[in-house]
Design a protein that fits this description.
With 237 residues, this protein is mostly helical. It has ten helices and five strands, in the order H-H-H-E-E-H-H-H-H-H-H-E-E-E-H. It has helices at 3-14, 25-34, 38-43, 55-76, 81-87, 93-99, 121-139, 141-157, 165-176, 217-236, and strands at 45-46, 49-50, 183-190, 197-204, 208-214. Helix 4 (55-76) crosses helix 8 (141-157) and helix 9 (165-176) crosses helix 10.
């Protein structure tokens, strides 16, 4: 692995809420594989064979993610199997790919793609699942559970199966500005612990930022996405 990419990975893993340090070269190689799309692997062979891509470890990462989320929902909500299954939709590929950029960890900036391969929400979701597998192989299930829930528990807890405003904004931006993704940042947390209000901003790269507030980080991000969609519609009008 090149020195600059190694430093990028070390910084990525050290940031909160991941907080993984002291990473060995062997573990780094697995993380690097988790971020390598097959299009890049075929363009950069290791001898006569393509370099490893994320597809095999994504298989296990998908199962680990589903277990962690199902366990979290089961222990959090005293509701029917149908209601729990509805909430599990948050980790479906099309929804997960819109949730991950909103975590603000910059996962998408480390993904290796081949020439002409566009970054899609499906690839983002796949890489996140592969990353979970690499994390599990490196630090075990308990630490992986902490990281995963630290990243996506709020979005899963407040997942909107209706309008999916965050997904609509992401699709709109990728359609009009290929390669760019909206960037979300939680700016402030106000009020008492039992009734907080979060302030979030979403930035459409090179264009504008839009604010949003809500009772949860997920709600604030959805409000910011809705405001950004309105700005885009007004500009077109």
């Amino acid at each position: 692995m090149e020195w600059t990419r190694k430093q990028d990975f070390l910084a990525f893993l050290a940031q909160q809420p991941i907080g993984i340090t002291g990473v060995t070269d062997e573990a780094l190689a697995c993380y690097d594989r988790a971020f390598t799309h097959r299009s890049y692997a075929h363009e950069h062979p290791c001898g006569k064979l393509p370099c490893p891509d994320y597809e095999r470890i994504e298989f296990l990462g998908d199962r680990i993610l589903n277990f962690i989320v199902a366990e979290y929902l089961f222990s959090t909500f005293n509701c029917s199997e149908g209601a729990l299954s509805k909430r599990m939709e948050a980790v479906k590929n099309e929804h997960l790919g819109t949730i991950v950029p909103g975590t603000g960890i910059g996962l998408e900036r480390l993904i290796l793609l081949g020439t002409g391969q566009a970054l899609t929400t499906s690839i983002i979701a796949d890489v996140f699942e592969a990353f979970i597998c690499a994390l599990y192989l490196h630090v075990g299930l308990d630490r992986t559970r902490e990281v995963v829930l630290g990243l996506v528990a709020d979005d899963i807890l407040h997942f909107d199966t209706g309008e999916n405003t965050i997904g609509r904004l992401q699709e709109r931006v990728q359609k009009d500005h290929a390669g760019d993704l909206p960037e979300y940042h939680v700016l402030d947390r106000q009020g008492p612990d039992h009734a907080p209000t979060f302030v979030c901003a979403v930035t459409v790269p090179g264009l504008f930022s839009a604010p949003g507030t809500g009772r949860s980080k997920a709600e604030a991000k959805r409000a910011a996405a809705a405001a950004a969609l309105q700005v885009l519609e007004e500009r077109e009008g």
